[in-house]
Amino acid sequence: MDHSHGHQMDPGEAYSTSKLGMWLFLGTEIMLFGGLFAAYAIFRSKYPEMFLEQHRELNREMGAINTCILIFSSMTMAIGVTAIQRGKQKLTSIMLLITILCGFAFAGVKYVEYGAKFSHHIYPDTSIFFSLYFMLTGLHMLHVFIGIAILSTMLVLTMKGKFNQKYSTPVELGGLYWHLVDLIWIYLFPLLYLIG
Amino acid sequence: MTWIPEAASNLAGKVDGVLWLITLMSAVFFVLITVLLVYFSIKYRRRSDDDETPYITGSEPLEIIWTVIPSILLIVIFIYAYVVYKDMRTPPKDAVDINVLGKQWVWEFNYYNGKKTLNELYLKQNAPVRMVMRADDVIHSFFVPQFRVKQDLLPGRYTQLWFTPIKVGTFDLFCAEYCGTGHSKMRAKVIVLSPEAYDIWENGAQAGEGSAVAGLTPVELGEKLYKEKGCNACHSLDGTVVVGPSFKGIIGRSEEFTDGSSHTADENYIRQSILEPQSQVVKGFPPVMPSFKGILSDDDISALIAYMKTLN
Amino acid sequence: MANNTIAEHVYVPFLEEKKGILSWLTTTDHKKIGILYLVSVSFFFLIAGTIALLMRFELLTPEADFVSPHVYNVLFTLHGSIMVFFFIVPGLAASFGNFLIPLMIGAPDVAFPKLNIGSYWLYILGTIILLFALLKPADTGWTFYTPYSANTDTDVVLMTFGVFVLGFSSILTGLNFIVTIHKMRAPGMTWHRLPLFIWASYATAILQLLATPVVGITLLLLIAERTLGVGFFDPAKGGDPVLFQNFFWFYSHPAVYIMIIPAMGVISEIIPVFARKPIFGYKAIAYSSLGIAFISFLVWAHHMFTSGISEVAATIFSFLTFLVAIPTAIKVFNWTATLYKGSIQLQSPMLYALGFIFLFTIGGLTGLFLGALAADIHLHDTYFVVAHMHYVMIGGTVMGFFGALHFWYPKWFGKMFNETVAKVAWFLIFVGFNVTFFPQFFLGVEGMPRRYATYPQEFKSLMSLSTYGSWILGVGILIMTVNLIAALFNGEKAPQNPYGSLSLEWQVPSPPPHENFHEIPHVTDWTYGYGKKS
User: What is the ipTM of this complex?
Assistant: First the structure.
């Protein structure tokens, strides 16, 4: 047997290896946001009235719209992943595109929201609550942009025919990342916008 | 150089007990390991390339022994250190409060009877005291090695520590939390007086403790006060800017203030700056100088001015 | 091995495959990436070490006469930051971990070779950012405590951002190693046959992965405080400066185990080879690495006993701190027991390994003083802490690093260095180190505080002694460095297995070929079968 070069893993091994890598990476993202969530918990218990009073300033409607956008985009992402696992490149491309557009829509809503805050002279240094609001949603927004970049790359590669039912790992990994971005928002939204 | 500073507070002896216990236990294990390492290295040194060695991979009984015994010893240390710590954190009901304010880079002490001192802490022997402390700007730390006490000073919050000084004498207070350029100079003297001497200090005039300064010329006294009252933490003698204007060539210098006005630095200006520093702040400098009203007597101020006149 | 007639396998040492700087900077060969890291971390070690020599030169006399207090403060900030983030955290893991992990487990490379070189580029990016920060270097100490770090008029933002980028490098390296160890072990290389360096690398990688993001967010929050006016650590805005300390140490305590565990792994490799005995207590050592990693997340506030934390919190953290001492002690006992009835040869790698055990024992025992509540109150923020940390970091990690350098040098570079000169260098390093740092324990007990540019006269004799020791240490390191570099050019060609090790990396040529193994080995036993009668 020729083993002089190319000690390649079999595709199954390669797939589970990549998946493990991505899950570990998602773990680090959770630790990163975990620090901010810890800060939230600490300051919330210290200043319950401030949180109660100031969270009312947030625009619940926009927050809810963004939540729906992200949940919807997770669905389209999931459909896209299933599609490429069945070799349906065209469907995958459409789903990736919709997901990316949802990402931009999310960003658009956030742009309007931040704009409204600034015009009311509410900035990151206005209070501890708003510091947390801007840091949490800002860091999240950065991750949305990273997700958009990743999915755009996947879209281009899909359209070039790089993925099929035998090999769709990068799309799946991109999907995992996007789901994490969604999941973080699902925690952010009630903590910041909803609970009194 | 002694192994350990003198034990000048009631807590020092207790802390030393903990230190000695850990030292003893550590020494035993250190000697054991060292002896074994050296002994084995010599006794089992390689004699030839064909040396036979036994295939020993471990010993469960040994693992258990050297897990359980150290665990027990460690718990003993933990408990003993905890018990002493609890005492260190529990001030007695009759402890007298002294307020401590730490700011870059000066120690301000405010006593319950309204007295205030800078960089000198006056205590009565055998009287327990509780330091109620806070910082004005960044984190500092109150550390007196001879008392074995230490606690950080925080901005926006009070922290505390307590002790009873048991020996008469003068002891060093260091700032033990890095706080910027003047950190290593942020020191004070802790002056523990006998009860009688303390009463005299408490009731007597604040400044100029008689015998210590008798016989000094004004310039000599001024130089002494420059160092002991903390002026040196912020005002240099060589022209460099530390926090405030340098004293080099200050007398006769024209200073411009933040409100645009200016004035020549004469005797009255110096006196005003010492007693009401915020009334005229030199442009380009931060308004952080504390007032020395009640801390420096008129004679002290004259001495300082005399000293400053020599700084050209 | 290959007894069939498929293409003749020509051995090309990996060092000779592809030449040129660009091929090195874009390589995906873990062995070359290991060298890239080795050169970089060694470079920063020497820079930060020189800064330390400057600091100790200033401390020869009580007055700040060599440098001003501000410059001294910048020096100790740079010394700490460069040593911690640019040398010791990446240090052994990124250099030797990269080189050894695939070889030791019988794999051709790591799981994600492109990510591997990407991690190195992030490291370089971090160093470039640090370079810019040097224009107005921070004077906060490597610990960046607020409020001072939020207000000081020096470039804290760039410096902490550089560290943030380095954190990414560390995280991705850890990720790569965990997946590699899980997924790429050769057939027959079960978990309980893995070399202990692999167990150590695994535990370290978990720490890198989980702890580093927390310092990432901490530094981001500090940057936000300086740039956006966010006030989590500012009491005037409702924040808490001690919160910074909690966040910072939540990473930085596990970080010290990132620093030491790989070195412990190295010792576990060297001792069996040079004593010709199996490692004593393999499972105890393997699991103790995991145990230390786990407990390390629970002890961070032992750096904060005087910071204003509650007595209850302090008590809990002190107790947990004593817990972490137990698996550490177990390793020391097992290493020592490995020597029993061995056939011991005191060549330079073994000298470093034995030196490690001796010095790390001192470092570890002095940690007990600091974990004990009442004692720590007196010793915190004094030279006692400085001595303790240098005993574990130099006496521990650096000795492990130098030991690894000498042990795997023939394998990595295919040359032998001058053993006599190596022994002389070791001796100077050992003596110089002790003369520098042992007096500092006494200085600490006497009350000499840390981070002092000027100090009271009464501490002068011990402070001067410490400085003289630093000169001996510096000379020793210089001789060692020159010896190792010279051997690259003048050294004898190295045989495949000069020390008689049973580990997989020694069963391939020195240096290994690009693909490591001509044929992936089939493992049937652990790698510590010395003296085993088959």
Answer: 0.93
